[in-house]
Amino acid sequence: MAFVGAGNILLEYCIGGAAVARAWTSYFATLLNQEPDRFRIHATSLHEDYSRLDPIAVVVIVLICAFAVISTKGSSRFNYILSIVHIGVILFIIIAGLTKADTANMRDFTPFGARGIFAASAVLFFAYIGFDAVSTMAEETKNPARDIPIGLVGSMAITTGLYCILAVTLCLMVPFADIDKDAPFSVAFSQRGMNWAKYIVAFGALKGMTTVLLVSAVGQARYLTHIARTHMMPPWLAQVHPRTGTPVNATVVMLFATAVIAFFTDLGILSNLLSISTLFIFMLVAVSLLVRRYYVTGETTTANRNKLVACIVAILLSSIATATYWGLDRKSWVPYAVTVPAWLVATACLWAFVPQARAPKLWGTPLVPWLPSASIAINIFLLGSIDAKSFERFGFWTAGLLVYYIFIGLHASYDESKALAAEAAARKVEDGQVAPPTNGK
């Protein structure tokens, strides 16, 4: 499960970087008063979803790769400066945009009903990748146990608030049907007679997307490095350059994959597949939190372990049943009257009958098991709003991960763990902690 989760995190970063790179081309075209497709090559021999080749996106990714390879500290400083500029551009968009607000645009507040809201929420996870990159910087953090939770929660709260305000501003500026899919804010200012403002917005968007790509490049390389250290991936990916202190091999490999995806794949496909991967990972994290909080090897009794497994399975099955019925688009409410209470009962049983086996030392998720259980249910429910083709692509990727793990990764990591155990035993003998083996034993 850890390997599948890690593989999907890598997929998330590659797809997210590719999507942002293609969006970079769109805003660059807007800055030059051109249509985005004029900067793309239309390969008619390829499938429609993969026929708009984007060389500019590839060039941007290559430049980001070079910068990420040179220096992690330099990348962080550059990112810090750009983030300050980006906040200024965001404030400009909000203030200038609200001067052109028209509340009439919000009268049809839910044009697609509840299903439209949840379908949009599922794809909206496109905007929530990158927060977990904070955790990959633990080696560069002075006090990770304190600083990383603050960084995660703080950045997520600020970004969520700004995202909501920007969305409201955009919808007040232009009717939802007139929002441009390639460069929404720039085109919105142009439509409202502020043609000069679209250049500021396009510049800010390019700067913001450059920052996202840089953070993604640093984060995804760290993920791959940690996986390679276990030998589940080729160990040469874990090598760190002695002068720059950066994982050069991992950075180049990940950004090469990102560039290939960005060159071929349409933004709509990327956003849906990215949302599946992200929602799946968030669900896995919530499950792992329950396991970590309620189970300790050698301490948790068999009875408590079985109760924990039963409760988690019930939470998952009830959540999947709710999402499946929602995805079928049936009108009856009766199944929900069964699946939702089943989730509630399973969570209540976990809370009442299974004792927690581990307490967090410094910082921990509150309201366990209710909060992680709700996270499981919400993430699975949102998965029910994504199209079937995206699930097929996700299934092929996950199947490929399992094949690699079973035939290569599992054996390589087992051999590595045995070698490490032998080294540890040899050190104990050398230090006189244990007696050396005798009679060949």
Automatic annotation (TrEMBL):
Pfam families per record: AA_permease_2, AA_permease_C
Compartments reported by the entry: Membrane
Record-annotated membrane-spanning stretches: 55-71, 78-97, 117-138, 150-176, 196-224, 245-264, 276-296, 308-328, 334-355, 367-388, 394-414
Membrane topology: Multi-pass membrane protein
Keywords for this protein: Membrane, Transmembrane, Transmembrane helix
InterPro entries linked: AA/rel_permease1, CAT_C
Residues of the Cationic amino acid transporter C-terminal domain: 363-413
Top-rank taxon: Eukaryota
Listed GO CC annotations: plasma membrane
Name of the featured protein: Cationic amino acid transporter C-terminal domain-containing protein
Main location: membrane
Gene3D superfamilies: Amino acid/polyamine transporter I (1.20.1740.10)
Molecular-function annotations in GO: L-glutamate transmembrane transporter activity; L-lysine transmembrane transporter activity
Organism field: Lolium multiflorum (Italian ryegrass)
Family to which this protein belongs: Belongs to the amino acid-polyamine-organocation (APC) superfamily. Cationic amino acid transporter (CAT) (TC 2.A.3.3) family.
